[in-house]
From TrEMBL:
SUPFAM superfamilies named among the record's database cross-references: 2Fe-2S ferredoxin-like (SSF54292), Actin-like ATPase domain (SSF53067)
UniProt xrefs under Gene3D superfamilies: 3.10.20.30, 3.10.20.880, Domain of unknown function (DUF4445)
Top-rank taxon: Bacteria
GO function terms (MF aspect): iron-sulfur cluster binding
Pfam families per the UniProt record, alphabetical: Fer2, RACo_C_ter, RACo_linker, Raco_middle
PROSITE patterns hit by this protein: 2FE2S_FER_2
Domain 2Fe-2S ferredoxin-type, first and last residues per copy: 2-93
Protein's name in the database: 2Fe-2S ferredoxin-type domain-containing protein
InterPro entries: 2Fe-2S_ferredoxin-like_sf (IPR036010), 2Fe-2S_ferredoxin-type (IPR001041), ATPase_NBD (IPR043129), Beta-grasp_dom_sf (IPR012675), Corrinoid_activation_enz (IPR052911), Raco-like_middle (IPR041414), Raco-like_middle_sf (IPR042259), RACo_C (IPR027980)
Sections of the chain in a coiled coil: none
Length: 647
């Protein structure tokens, strides 16, 4: 069998592979990150690499322009190795940055968290994480008091803290003699206690202090982590980054498919734990001078597929009828079982799922939203990668998952990106000149468009007459920003010209992107219609609508209504909650009773499988138009269009 050597620059990593191997697959094997939201199907055009030298073949794709081909640009997933090669990997936004932020009192994030804590305390929940430092002064052993070290420690814990027979792992036991004698029998025990048991998870010097926890939202696209002081409840800092699994596909389905490939499951598990979560934790503890051993409690929330992949459990049956996950509620684990780089004995809690496509992140969000304590009918929409919807109040909770795909986090959109520095987060288009004005996250040139920007863009293009209700770009509009892409045979609108963008390429949106976005918004709106219908309710019965998820905090509700993503109801009914899953995980970190509540929510929530509703498809097709085929549902949008006509 003929072998070839492939060198990846700038990291200078080389790998020997057999001739004919697929370049994307080879990069994955070599541990090289290449963005691949479509999972290697050749649809998204994001796996661009530059072939510096070497024989290869690439299948035809209309996604690369002639100029790019001339410059050696290839799509890795369509490229096959024919000889020794040198390949240059572009700087990829997805892995480029871990975004770290201090949470200050009074800012938006901390206000949302405070509000959720207040809601829990008003419901009678007691703030008690179960983690504490036990400061112990043990009598030194003598010939008369020759009790063994472990028993001596336990005796003092019983005397001072009323703790009977705490558990102590072999690893901790091994440290006891040295730790006791180092501090002249003064020691700090790191204790985790709940209603069933108590464990000594570490020993430390008497005068050191600080015990910490981690709470995290494991999103399909983005992972967000808080480092929390467990004594005060203060969030020391927040960090987020892309989920490194996006190199294996942008949505849960492509990840499940990839997990079935050789080494697929192992690579997915490593990407999320070693490639994403541990680097985020490292960054947080280094920046804040926190000792890893002092992090003794972790709470994670993720959708059902992410929960499986986080534990390295095969998710295959989630996507096969009748859609059965391996587990709904995961037993408590230790950090060392999962590979989380904190105190190895730290307790790891993974919030319970509801069903195949409604997971612990939604349970966590519902916990934080407080819907379960309200009399009003509340709609909760999580707009991230895919969309999950919950309808309910203190008496019932109904949920469904819409296959919206990753469009609202910028996935499968040619110039889409997640809400990170360089993302265009809001857009306006002049009705006369069709010139856009944009807002970019961070102090850099624009790199792409995130969810809130995409929603603005579709709404603005529609209201200014650039696109019609089917999302087709008009050839009548006179602007040099509107042009025909011969290779793809579609019209496109240039939002940012090459000279003004971060990487010197035009930032555009074409009719294929618009179609993807319309399908995504239709999936959400039709899901919402079916959910209301199955509860025997109409929009008039809904008192409040909570929006959560990774769509971006700059979401303009009015524009989301204008494109028919959200219902056309009084805007004062809407409330944007941000990352509700992370807030819920924080609550579970600090309130033991919140963990029980999460379990109760997971058990009581009814999951509705949309595909079993005969009229779901009909609703979906109607919602694929802007805003909808039934304009009576969108009186506000009709009003805006009429106002435009009168101009
Ligand atoms: S086009 Fe190659 S991964 Fe999407």
């Amino acid at each position: 069998m003929e072998k070839c050597t492939v060198v990846f620059n700038p990291v200078k990593k080389s790998i020997i592979v057999k001739k004919g191997a697929n370049l994307l697959e080879v990069a994955r094997k070599a541990g090289i990150f290449i963005d691949a939201p479509c999972g290697g199907k050749g649809n998204c055009g994001k796996c661009r690499v530059k072939v510096v030298s070497g024989e290869h073949q690439m299948e035809f794709t209309p996604l690369l322009k002639e100029e790019e081909l001339k410059n050696g640009i290839r799509l890795a997933c369509l490229t096959f190795i024919e000889g020794d090669m040198v390949v240059e990997i572009p700087h990829v936004d997805a892995v480029e940055g871990i975004f770290v932020e201090d949470i200050k009192p009074g800012d938006e994030k901390s206000e949302r968290i405070e509000k959720a804590c207040k809601m829990l305390t008003e419901q009678g929940f007691k703030k008690d994480s179960g983690a504490f430092s036990a400061y112990l002064k043990l009598p030194s052993p003598t010939l008369d008091d020759n009790v063994a070290d472990l028993e001596r420690l336990k005796r003092e814990l019983r005397k001072k803290y009323g703790i009977n027979n705490p558990v102590c792992s072999l690893n901790v036991m091994k440290t006891i003699p040295a730790k006791l004698r180092e501090g002249d029998f003064r020691v700090r025990g790191l204790i985790l206690k709940d209603k069933y048991s108590c464990e000594v998870v570490g020993l430390d010097g008497f005068y050191t202090d600080g015990i910490y926890g981690i709470c995290a939202d494991i999103g399909t696209t983005t992972v967000a982590v808080n480092l929390v002081d467990l004594t005060t409840g203060e969030i020391i800092a927040f960090a987020s980054s892309a989920n490194l699994q996006i190199q294996y596909g942008g949505d849960v389905i492509s990840r499940i498919i990839y997990s079935g490939e050789e080494e697929g499951l192992d690579r997915l598990k490593k990407s999320i734990v070693d490639g994403t979560i541990n680097p985020l934790i490292n960054k947080l503890i280094l920046k804040n001078n926190v000792k890893r051993e002092n992090i003794i409690l972790c709470v994670f929330a993720g959708n059902t597929t992410m929960s499986h992949l986080f534990l390295g459990i095969d998710p295959a049956n989630i996507r096969l009828e009748p859609y059965i996950p391996v587990f709904k509620e995961c037993p408590e684990l230790k950090a060392k079982d999962v590979g989380i780089n904190v105190n190895p004995e730290a307790k790891v809690i993974l919030l319970p799922n509801v069903a195949s496509y409604v997971g612990g992140d939604i349970v966590s969000g519902i916990l934080a939203s407080g819907i379960w304590a309200q009399d009003e009918n509340i709609l909760f929409l999580d707009l991230g990668t895919n969309g999950e919807i919950v309808l309910g109040n203190r008496d019932y909770l109904l949920s469904c998952a819409c296959s919206a795909g990753p469009a609202f986090e910028g996935g499968e959109i040619s110039c889409g990106m997640r809400a990170a520095p360089g993302a265009i987060e809001s857009i306006k288009i002049d009705r006369e000149t069709f010139e856009p004005s944009i807002n970019v996250l961070g102090d850099i040139k624009p790199k792409g468009i995130c969810g809130s920007g995409l929603i603005d863009l579709i709404a603005e293009m529609f209201l200014s007459g650039i696109i019609d209700s089917k999302g087709k770009i008009s050839r009548e509009v006179s602007s040099d920003r509107i042009r025909y892409d011969e290779d793809l045979d579609v019209m496109e609108y240039v939002l940012v010209r090459d000279k003004d963008s971060y990487d010197g390429r035009d930032i555009t949106i074409n009719e294929i992107d618009i179609d993807n976005l319309l399908r995504a918004k239709a999936a959400v709106y039709s899901g919402l219609s079916v959910l209301l219908n199955s509860a025997g309710l109409t929009l008039r019965d809904v008192d409040k609508i909570i929006i959560a998820g990774g769509v971006g905090s700059n979401l303009h509700i009015r524009n989301a209504i204008n494109i028919g993503l959200l219902p056309d109801v009084d805007e004062s009914k809407y409330y944007y909650m941000g990352n509700s899953s992370l807030i819920g995980a924080y609550l579970c970190l600090l309130f033991q009773e919140a963990r029980d509540k999460a379990k109760e929510i997971s058990d009581s929530m009814t999951y509705i499988e949309l595909s079993t509703f005969p009229f779901y498809m009909e609703e979906f097709i109607k919602a694929c138009f802007i805003p909808h085929t039934d304009l009576n549902l969108f009186p506000g949008v009709v009003g805006l269009l009429e106002k435009n006509k009168r101009r």
